[in-house]
């Protein structure tokens, strides 16, 4: 009867939804990573981002030179000093990323059902019928029928800033493709992604090593985002390289999972890396849409059980140009938190978006509400009730303790195989006392 009552019990009081959100005394448990760029590199804007909740600044070396990023970093230091808000620095490598080079920055218009040729010959000018790329092995990697996406940020094939191509034939080093949707490509550089195709390029390129050595080491970066991680060996090689740079011996490596190859070796990568970044933009191409949520839930669960941070990307793309997210995006952010995500990574939304500060603030509020709902749904009371001591994993204990610290609702014993956490709520206050923590 008791279990039946639990099933029938209203999980969330509807009236509580109408109550104003309350600012928690404790710092947010779900961190926000903001990518700094053209729209978010001034001291004033970075200061506002820090106040809004950004706690990690990401520097994406897929574009911009070291001098440009150094200037941004110096502005970050000034913003940290003025706001007295701590912020870590993350360097994002380029890795084996395929790119279309448009040196003249001519706007390229591609029409549906037309043809376009991808060529490795850099000397040629980009046009609506010819796209020079930075990889000479594409013709050997693809076969007719393969799908290729080209664009700056979004990869669904529906928006006008990215294009979906289908390989029709291979001619020597060139790849002839049929254009599947009308699109306009603007700018000097576009990312190219081949669905479920192995790209024979090193995960940590010579260019990446040069940037880490000349920019990362002097600035003592906190995190290295290892793009396109495909094997545990990729992480080991990156760690070996960092260890040779004395200033980066303590830098944590976050493996960025971006394709099926990385998914196939996820467990071994997780064991080797310090954290995981679920890069849903490229994964959304490699995986059928109906499989993306399964990957996310499974990967976050594995990270939680291993006690390693998990970061989710591509959550509020519409806020790049709009002041508010869609309802689906807001729900997506909350579900990522409920699934166990430790951080949300914002890319285009803060790099070139019109509302970087508002985006960080909005995502932060959604994360806070999701954390609050963990208590309302009974996660903590169920595990922390001293009458029903919970046997669970360390990662679950960590999550419960985070919730307890967030809201001051801790009372009882939480046990796991390798530790015992005894926490007690101090009267009616919001103070939580950890009585014992044993390995």
From TrEMBL:
<keyword id="KW-0418">Kinase</keyword>
<dbReference type="InterPro" id="IPR015813">
    <property type="entry name" value="Pyrv/PenolPyrv_kinase-like_dom"/>
</dbReference>
<keyword id="KW-0324">Glycolysis</keyword>
<comment type="pathway">
    <text>Carbohydrate degradation; glycolysis; pyruvate from D-glyceraldehyde 3-phosphate: step 5/5.</text>
</comment>
<keyword id="KW-0547">Nucleotide-binding</keyword>
<keyword id="KW-0808">Transferase</keyword>
<dbReference type="GO" id="GO:0004743">
    <property type="term" value="F:pyruvate kinase activity"/>
</dbReference>
<keyword id="KW-0460">Magnesium</keyword>
<keyword id="KW-0067">ATP-binding</keyword>
<keyword id="KW-0670">Pyruvate</keyword>
<keyword id="KW-0479">Metal-binding</keyword>
<keyword id="KW-0602">Photosynthesis</keyword>
<dbReference type="GO" id="GO:0015979">
    <property type="term" value="P:photosynthesis"/>
</dbReference>
<dbReference type="GO" id="GO:0000287">
    <property type="term" value="F:magnesium ion binding"/>
</dbReference>
<protein>
    <recommendedName>
        <fullName>Pyruvate kinase</fullName>
        <ecNumber>2.7.1.40</ecNumber>
    </recommendedName>
</protein>
<dbReference type="GO" id="GO:0016301">
    <property type="term" value="F:kinase activity"/>
</dbReference>
<dbReference type="InterPro" id="IPR015806">
    <property type="entry name" value="Pyrv_Knase_insert_dom_sf"/>
</dbReference>
<dbReference type="GO" id="GO:0005524">
    <property type="term" value="F:ATP binding"/>
</dbReference>
<feature type="domain" description="Pyruvate kinase barrel">
    <location>
        <begin position="30"/>
        <end position="360"/>
    </location>
</feature>
<comment type="similarity">
    <text>Belongs to the pyruvate kinase family.</text>
</comment>
<dbReference type="InterPro" id="IPR015793">
    <property type="entry name" value="Pyrv_Knase_brl"/>
</dbReference>
<dbReference type="GO" id="GO:0030955">
    <property type="term" value="F:potassium ion binding"/>
</dbReference>
<dbReference type="InterPro" id="IPR040442">
    <property type="entry name" value="Pyrv_kinase-like_dom_sf"/>
</dbReference>
<dbReference type="InterPro" id="IPR001697">
    <property type="entry name" value="Pyr_Knase"/>
</dbReference>
<dbReference type="InterPro" id="IPR036918">
    <property type="entry name" value="Pyrv_Knase_C_sf"/>
</dbReference>
<dbReference type="Pfam" id="PF00224">
    <property type="entry name" value="PK"/>
</dbReference>
<dbReference type="InterPro" id="IPR011037">
    <property type="entry name" value="Pyrv_Knase-like_insert_dom_sf"/>
</dbReference>
